[in-house]
Design goal:
Rossmann fold
């Protein structure tokens, strides 16, 4: 009998959090999956979403919120032990066909009759390696052990870049079984017009890995002002300040993308980026990219961006000044960025995810 070419429609339980990039990732991917016929139940962990966030999620899926905290917001592995039990109710009540967990720690001790997919968007282990050049300190050692158990439990593991996949295997000391690379995608962006002589950057600036000090020092040396969007206060009391760059604070995602489309240059100074969604969003507006010279950005944007030493504010300022004084080079880089961005569409991401879902489902069925 010939196999049908019609994609299987699935009822997917997907974990989310309202704190950062996972929210945008989950909603954009979820919308694409729903448009293809799947249905989604979002199960949230950590701090509650804003009303705007909740309304967006509920416009395309069922949204429930759990009591379990996010792994990086707790210092005890035991705080996560209740999650398998919390996930069983929606698994049963919504007749779920597949579980998509957006952190490997969430898979530990989770017994489900359907495939369990784990996505490693980031982790404390690889963050310490990239940002501080060291292994986890003792307070976080349990994270590495729990992540490893989550990877081993998963029916498929996804990393958003080859660089992050390699970092996982390096930091955890052995190959990760059933590991796939699926690049992120992003929604269409505003048309670029009325470029302004300014530099724009967007990040969670309280996160040490976003490298606030380098971009702030560079702002004292550049001809164009540097404007920044993003939270300055972290959930565990972290605080960041700018002395030279102009902070705009946390802004709605549509406003951030509008600013990206108007900026003459987009900068990301990150020391740690498993993918770097903000750079992709800026590239989709043909905004010239000036990026820290880290493995992920070289993998994704080599030939389509200008790179600088991530720990040298003078190198960053020199790149910005060179580019701000050369309109022709800015146009060339902007066009190179938008061409490269076409590799990372939501349609392509969703198709790749469906392929991973299908392979995992077949493997589970054969067990």
């Amino acid at each position: 009998m010939l196999r049908t070419l019609t994609p299987r429609k699935r009822r997917i339980l997907m974990t989310v959090d309202a704190m950062g990039g996972v929210w945008r990732y989950a909603l954009d991917l979820g919308r694409e999956l729903v448009n293809g016929g799947d249905s989604i139940v979002f199960a949230g962990l950590g701090p509650q979403p804003s009303r705007q966030q909740a309304e967006e999620a509920q416009s395309l899926a069922t949204l429930i919120w759990l009591n379990t905290p996010l792994d990086w917001m707790t210092r005890s592995s035991g705080d996560l032990d209740a999650l398998p039990g919390e996930l069983h109710a929606p698994l049963r009540d919504h007749a779920i066909d597949l579980v998509h967990l957006n952190a490997p720690t969430q898979a530990v001790e989770f017994d489900a009759p359907c495939p369990v997919i784990v996505v490693s968007h980031s982790c404390v282990t690889t963050w310490f390696h990239a940002v501080r050049g060291q292994a986890l300190d003792s307070a976080w050692a349990w994270q590495k052990e729990r992540n490893r158990r989550g990877f081993d439990r998963a029916d498929a593991v996804i990393a958003p870049s080859r660089s992050h996949a390699e970092a996982i295997e390096t930091c955890y000391g052995r190959p990760i079984a059933r590991l796939h690379v699926v690049g992120n995608g992003a929604r269409p962006v505003p048309k670029a017009e009325n470029r302004q002589p300014l530099v724009f950057a967007a990040a969670r600036w309280w996160d040490e890995g976003k490298n606030i000090g380098v971009v702030d020092q560079a702002a004292s040396l550049t001809q164009w002002p540097i404007f920044t969007a993003g939270s300055m206060h972290g959930p565990n009391g972290e605080r960041a300040t700018f002395n030279h760059a102009v902070p705009l604070g946390a802004l709605p995602s549509d406003e951030v993308r509008s600013l990206m489309a108007r900026a003459g240059i987009f900068v990301s100074p990150s020391l740690y980026e498993p993918f770097g969604l903000a750079a992709l969003e800026a590239a989709m507006s043909a905004t010239p990219l000036v990026l820290s010279d880290i493995a992920t950005y070289r993998e994704l944007w080599d030939g389509a961006a200008m790179f600088f030493d991530a720990r040298d504010p003078h190198d960053l300022a020199a790149c910005i000044n060179r580019l701000s004084s050369d309109a022709g080079h800015r146009r060339e880089l902007g066009q190179a960025a938008i061409r490269r961005s076409r590799r990372f569409t939501l349609a392509r991401q969703a198709a790749a995810m469906r392929d991973v879902y299908e392979r995992a489902s077949l493997a589970v069925a054969e067990r």
